[in-house]
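Field log, afternoon session.

UNIT: design team B
ACTIVITY: writing a sequence onto a fixed backbone
BACKBONE:
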């Protein structure tokens, strides 16, 4: 469970509370509203991913622990979940007309 708390914190750090990497000229309140909506979508996707990973760990975690590969598997699950949540956020923002700054 503590591992998932760390994953959540890392996702918050990855996505950030303020849309720093995304910009649309001439907006501020609307940008915050859209970003909040997209963050909620990414959080929902992450929650689903977390439940799936918990089920997988409950089923196969002991096998991976005995094989000595549990840390590697957890790391890969974390990276995959963070990547998917980031993709959901990016896709949502792109669909609302935002583009990466720079």
């Amino acid at each position: 469970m503590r591992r998932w708390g760390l994953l959540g914190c890392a996702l918050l750090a990855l996505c950030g509370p303020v849309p720093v990497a995304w910009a649309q000229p001439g907006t501020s309140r609307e940008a915050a509203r859209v970003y909040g909506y997209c963050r909620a979508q990414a959080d929902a996707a992450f929650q689903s991913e977390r439940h799936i990973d918990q089920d997988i760990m409950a089923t196969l975690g002991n096998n991976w622990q005995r094989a000595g590969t549990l840390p590697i598997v957890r790391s890969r699950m974390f990276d995959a979940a963070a990547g998917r949540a980031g993709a959901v956020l990016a896709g949502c923002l792109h669909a609302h007309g935002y583009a990466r700054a720079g």
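LOG NOTE: Strands lie at 22-23, 99-100.
NEXT ACTIVITY: expression trials, pending approval
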